[in-house]
Each structure stands twice: as C-alpha cells, then as structure tokens.
Amino acid sequence: MEIDLIAESTDKLTLLAGEVKWSDKDLYYETKLSLDRKCANLPFTGNRQIIKAVFLKEKPTQIFPETIVFLPDDILQSIT
After folding, report:
1. Would you give the DSSP letter of residue 79?
2. Are 12 and 48 in contact (CB under 8 A)?
3. Could you tell me which of 22, 5, 17, 12 has the C-alpha nearest to residue 57?
4. What is the rounded CA–CA span in Å between residue 69 and residue 67?
5. pLDDT tens-place string over residues 28-44
6. Cα(72)–Cα(9) distance, rounded to whole angstroms?
7. pTM of full prediction above 0.85
C-alpha cells in the first residue's frame, strides 16, 4: 500500500493522509475512493482522527465534503 503523504499533528491525535494526481483528467473521485480504502487499512492509526486530502492539478467537477482538495494555487499561496 502506498500513500503519497502522511503527516502527524504535533499533539499526535490527528493524521493527514494525502494523494497527489497531476493529470488533465478529472481523477478526483477515483483518487478519493482509493484514499478511503487505504486509510481504512492503515495499521498505525489507533484512535487518531484522519484528515483526507487530495492534491490535484485542476478543480474537479464535484467535491465531497469529507475530503479536502488542494490545488496548485492553494499550495503556492501558503508558502509566499
């Protein structure tokens, strides 16, 4: 199993799990489902909350509220 990004909060109560898709196709739904399956099988989560994020090249046509979507501008704004 491969997840592109895993980060742990400083208080160790929350994990951020993310997948990155750099494509001109709208792969959000497939990527979200894949991330859901992977997160359900992570052996080290314990009782921690998991925040799911998908990093995409372009905005998808539909976004599900339980998954955060990051676009290139979101990342660039956070580092400038």
Report:
1. H
2. yes
3. 22
4. 6
5. 999 999 999 999 999 88
6. 23
7. yes
